[in-house]
Write a structure and sequence with these properties.
The complex is a heterodimer of chains A (249) and B (311).
Chain A lengths: L1 E5 L2 E3 L21 E3 L1 H15 L5 E8 L3 H11 L3 E6 L6 H15 L3 E5 L10 H9 L3 E11 L2 E8 L2 E8 L2 E5 L11 H7 L4 E4 L12 E7 L8 E2 L3 H11 L4
Parallel strand pairs in A: 1-4, 1-6, 4-5, 5-11, 6-10, 7-10
Antiparallel strand pairs in A: 2-3, 7-8, 8-9
Helix pairs in contact in A: 2-5, 3-4
Chain B lengths: L1 E5 L10 H10 L4 E8 L3 H8 L4 E8 L8 H11 L3 E7 L2 H14 L3 E5 L1 E4 L2 E6 L4 E7 L4 E5 L15 E4 L9 E8 L12 E5 L9 H11 L2 E4 L1 H5 L20 E5 L5 H7 L4 E6 L12 E4 L2 H12 L2
Parallel strand pairs in B: 1-2, 1-4, 2-3, 3-10, 4-9, 5-9, 12-13, 12-14, 14-15, 15-16
Antiparallel strand pairs in B: 6-7, 7-8
Helix pairs in contact in B: 3-4, 5-8
Classes of the chains: A alpha/beta (249), B alpha/beta (311).
Chain lengths: 249, 311
């Protein structure tokens, strides 16, 4: 079985994003970029399935600018066998990304596709579900556990009320939630090895996909600022303020 | 120009989040219909028909709709979506699971997690963990939308008198199968609907110590929440998590205890009306958003607070 994982280059999770002063977009100049944290979890899961002897090959795919090669190299340093970059400088939105990944899947024919449940930049939480729809495959979203048995995939999902377990036919799409696993740290020798692993670069046009955005960004703004309040001396004063000033208890 | 809203339910009761989604739909359109797909869910159909402002309830009943599996629900929504300009659901784990599948089948974008409506094609939504609010305009004929429930005040669940229309169920996709559910049982209010939330973080230290947080919550009639750190450490179940990727809440009072205030946690609670922080580290970022901050040892301050609140 081949596994394909999708990885996105996104703002580092420790960085606080700010709108540009003219409101035309988010200021990403000189901002640290990393692999989207949920995608790291997806990569880790693919590697673990391979290490358990249940996958013959793992492939990472990314959609975006040239710099996404670094993100793919990180995935390969973690253990993925090879990378595919669909290179574009366009603003690619989830539907377009799903179509591009589907085109790669049509060529590669994996039986399992794992993605992060959402990217921490646009917080869309769409690509995995859209990909599953386009492929006509089942989807195990927000996964915190994945097990292969008798040609089916059992997925434990984090839902609002607790945990749900579902069985999916294969091939299937899985999106990773935070507690699926803890991604490994990349070791230096593996970073060197990753540089020699194959990385193919494709263009959206080669795949015959129209990536024209469907949503236009009208403007961005900072949310209403929240003023820090006061420090209270002790519990009595706190309760007094909550009762008599804020009137919330 | 009419709007269709996915009713969320457990086959016996309508989920309160649906009332917020209806409110968002009514901010876009006068003609709002609800679709109830389930198994033996006539009580939900009755409840949906009573929701203020709803025109028609579309009802599809089949055993394979019992658990809102996306593989079955999405094609059903697509089958009835013709004639609607907007298709909405609350941005719960159900809505987030199903709606992008609907959007892709319709070959349209989804607009996730809207918190405001500018006009019928222009919406506001938080991005980058809520540090940026984007206004986006859709050029698609059908707008598929998920609604952040804290962005819209719920409509009343009474006063409506919608007509009910039966919709033919489609065949079971056979792609997915419900196996089971482990739901957290609690007598406390539901996190996303509570007026007061008491949340604990890594500073609480252990699963046993969470009893301190729970004691304060029970004193205040509050829900219990947690930061990602506390959930990852196994102190509490995953459904307690408040934050960018957990639940987004906006209660009247949010008490953050032993929570440092990472960007990702603030994303889930900074729209609360009043925020209290109790933390021994006076430099903790949580104090930057707190209306009232108490620097101190939570193991001393929280029990003292429970006692001082009396009966």
């Amino acid at each position: 079985m081949k596994i394909l994982v999708a990885v996105k280059r996104a703002i580092d999770y420790n960085v606080k994003a700010r709108p540009k002063s003219d409101g035309s977009g988010v200021d990403l100049a000189n901002v640290k970029m990393s692999m989207n944290p949920f995608d790291e979890i997806a990569v880790e899961e693919a590697i673990r399935i391979q290490e358990a002897g249940n996958a013959s090959e793992t492939i990472a795919v990314s959609v975006g600018p040239k710099q996404c090669q670094e993100t793919l190299r990180t995935a390969m340093a973690m253990g993925v066998d090879r990378g595919v970059l669909v290179e574009t400088d366009e603003d690619v939105q989830p539907l377009a990304v799903a179509k591009l990944i589907k085109a790669v899947i049509d060529k590669e024919q994996p039986e399992l596709v794992i993605l992060g449940k959402q990217a921490i930049d646009d917080d869309s939480n769409q690509t995995g579900q859209m990909l599953a729809a386009l492929l006509g495959w089942p989807q195990g979203t927000f996964a915190c556990g994945v097990a292969l048995a008798d040609g089916k995939l059992e997925v434990r999902r984090e839902i609002d009320g607790g945990i749900q377990t579902i069985n999916l036919t294969m091939p299937a799409v899985v999106t990773a939630d935070l507690r699926l696993n803890e991604p490994r740290y990349v070791k230096l020798p593996n970073i060197m090895k990753a540089k020699k692993k194959p990385l193919d670069v494709l263009a959206p046009a080669e795949l015959g996909i129209d990536v024209t955005p469907r949503l236009t960004l009208v403007k961005v703004a900072e949310p209403p600022a929240r003023e820090g309040g006061v420090k209270v001396e002790d519990v009595q004063q706190l309760i007094d303020k909550l009762r008599n000033e804020a009137k919330v208890i | 120009m009419s709007a269709l809203v996915l009713a969320e339910h457990d086959n016996s009761a309508l989920s309160p989040a649906t009332l917020n989604a209806v409110a968002a739909a009514l901010a876009i359109s006068q003609d709002v219909d609800l679709i109830v797909a389930g198994s033996e869910c006539s009580a939900v159909v009755t409840a949906a028909g009573a929701v203020a402002g709803v025109r028609t309830v579309l009802h599809a009943d089949a055993a394979h709709y019992a658990h809102a599996l996306a593989e079955n629900l999405a094609p059903l929504i697509v089958a009835v979506a013709d004639g609607y300009e907007h298709v909405l659901a609350a941005a719960t784990t159900t809505g987030k699971n199903v709606m992008p599948r609907v959007a892709a089948l319709l070959d349209v974008a989804q607009i996730s997690d809207i918190i405001g409506v500018e006009d019928h094609e222009t919406f506001m939504r938080p991005i980058y963990a809520g540090n940026v609010i984007a206004t986006v305009r859709s050029s698609d004929a059908t707008k598929v939308i998920t609604v952040r429930t804290t962005g819209f005040d719920a409509v009343a669940d009474t006063g409506g008198s919608a007509a009910v229309e039966t919709v033919e169920a489609l065949a079971d996709s056979g792609l997915s199968q419900f196996v089971g559910e482990e739901l957290t049982k609690s007598d406390r209010p539901e996190l996303t609907a509570a007026d007061i939330i008491v949340s604990g973080g890594r500073g609480v230290g252990s699963s046993e110590n969470f009893a301190i947080i729970e004691a304060l919550a029970d004193k205040l009639g509050a829900a219990v929440g947690a930061s990602r750190a506390a959930v990852d450490a196994g102190y509490v179940p995953n459904d307690y998590q408040v934050g960018q990727t957990g639940k987004v809440v906006a209660p009247g009072l949010y008490i953050a205890i032993g929570i440092s205030g990472a960007i990702q946690h603030l994303a889930g609670m900074k729209d609360s009306k009043v925020i209290v922080a109790i933390n021994k580290d006076e430099e903790a970022p949580i104090f930057g958003v707190a209306d009232y901050g108490l620097v101190g040892d939570l193991f001393k301050e929280v029990p003292a607070m429970v006692e001082a609140l009396g009966d």
